Structure formats: structure tokens, C-alpha cells
């Protein structure tokens, strides 16, 4: 993983990168490194992912996972690391009518964090719902509902693999994939 940052990379940030590499994700989650923001923190790394079923051209959900690191800490973070995430997915049109959609989507995040055993200090975010209806020449298109979950939190340390796993679980939940059954272990992909 490439990082942005001045000079030599701190050992704490390198350990965090190694923990991200060691994270076990479902095979439907296709992860890719992308350029990280360079002005928010001295060190950062960014990943994008898409949830795809085998032999399916269209992704079911997509998102971005950014790790920010400031060895001096930042007061707003309440720590030296900050995880900033985005998840976007298309839902069934019937779901749009549910007035509790935003609350339910936020519980998907909380459940994913809890399920991975993640401690998330100073967590916050937004859930946005967009309903698209087509008219005129496009009237034959079905209604489309998109949900976007933006969240950030401060990990207690640089062990970020469980945080990435929790985010990947949120991606899969947003994509409508059922949870992995108990006792099933996802094997790491070969690089």
C-alpha cells in the first residue's frame, strides 16, 4: 500500500498498514488502493471496494475506506488515527417508503462494528436516501433508491484490520448479501 505523508513513515502507521493487509474479507468484496487525501493528516491511505457477485457485471454496493494518521494526534479525533468511510448501494424501491430507513442503515454500521469487535471512539456520520423516479421518455425505468452511509470514527490503536472487516461487512449488508454463517471462515486472497 502506498501512503501519503512527509519523510519516513512512522512505525505505528506501518503496523496499521500491515493490519489492513491481514484483514479477511468476503470474496464478493473487491478491494483496490486509490490515491489518499494528502492535506487532512500527515499520513493517509485510501481503499475503494465494490461488492460483486461472480459473473455479474454490475456492482451491488461500493465505497471508500480512508485511514488518516497524525502522530501528534488531533483534538477532534481524540486519538492519532481516524477512519473515514463511505458506503453507497441501491435498495429495493419498497424500502424507500420506510421512514426508518436512515436509522436502520445506521444500525447496519453499528452491528458491523460490534460484530468485528471494533471499538469506535467519537463515531459520527450521516445516512442519505435518494429516490429517483423517471418521467417522459424514461418513464419505463423502475424507481431507484440509493442509500449512502458516511461515517468516521477513531480507533483506539493501529490495529485496523478489524475496522476494515467491519466496513466490508457494512458494504455486504448494503448490497443485500446475507451474513456469513457462524463457523465459516473467509480465506485470505492471494496477492
What does this structure look like?
The protein has 191 residues and is an alpha+beta fold. It has one domain (11-174). It is built from four helices and six strands, in the order αββββααββα. The chain has helices at 11-21, 93-96, 101-115, 161-174; strands at 29-34, 43-51, 61-74, 79-91, 121-132, 144-154. The chain has a six-stranded antiparallel sheet with strand order 1-2-3-4-6-5. Helix 1 crosses helix 4 and helix 3 (101-115) packs antiparallel against helix 4 (161-174). The longest helix has 15 residues, at 101-115. The chain starts with 10 loop residues before the first helix and ends in a 17-residue tail after the last helix.
Describe the SSE topology.
Layout: H1 11-21, E1 29-34, E2 43-51, E3 61-74, E4 79-91, H2 93-96, H3 101-115, E5 121-132, E6 144-154, H4 161-174
Antiparallel strand pairs: 1-2, 2-3, 3-4, 4-6, 5-6
Helix pairs in contact: 1-4, 3-4
Question: Can you give the helix content as a percent range?
Answer: 10-25%
List unreliable stretches of 5+ residues. 186-191
Biggest sheet, open or closed, and with what strands and sense?
A: 6 strands, antiparallel
Number of domains: 1
Order of helices and strands: HEEEEHHEEH
From the alpha carbons, calculate the radius of gyration and give it in angstroms: 18 Å
Query: Biggest sheet, strands in spatial order?
Result: 1-2-3-4-6-5
Please state the overall shape, judged from the principal axes of the Cα atoms. Answer: elongated
Amino acid at each position: 500500500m502506498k501512503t501519503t505523508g512527509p519523510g519516513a513513515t512512522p512505525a505505528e502507521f506501518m503496523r496499521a498498514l500491515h493490519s489492513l493487509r491481514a484483514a479477511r474479507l468476503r470474496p464478493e468484496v473487491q478491494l483496490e488502493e486509490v490515491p489518499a487525501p494528502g492535506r487532512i493528516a500527515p499520513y493517509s491511505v485510501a481503499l475503494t471496494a465494490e461488492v460483486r457477485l461472480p459473473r455479474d457485471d454490475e456492482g451491488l454496493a461500493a465505497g471508500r475506506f480512508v485511514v488518516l494518521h497524525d502522530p501528534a494526534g488531533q483534538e477532534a479525533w481524540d486519538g492519532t488515527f481516524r477512519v473515514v468511510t463511505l458506503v453507497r448501494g441501491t435498495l429495493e424501491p419498497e424500502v424507500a417508503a420506510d421512514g426508518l430507513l436512515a436509522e436502520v442503515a445506521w444500525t447496519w454500521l453499528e452491528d458491523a462494528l460490534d460484530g468485528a469487535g471494533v471499538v469506535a471512539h467519537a463515531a459520527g456520520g450521516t445516512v442519505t436516501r435518494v429516490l429517483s423516479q423517471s418521467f417522459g421518455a424514461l418513464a419505463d425505468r423502475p424507481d431507484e433508491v440509493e442509500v449512502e452511509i458516511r461515517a468516521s470514527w477513531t480507533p483506539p490503536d493501529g490495529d485496523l484490520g478489524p475496522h476494515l472487516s467491519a466496513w466490508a461487512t457494512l458494504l455486504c449488508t448494503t448490497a443485500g448479501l446475507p451474513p456469513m454463517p457462524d463457523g465459516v471462515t473467509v480465506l485470505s486472497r492471494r496477492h
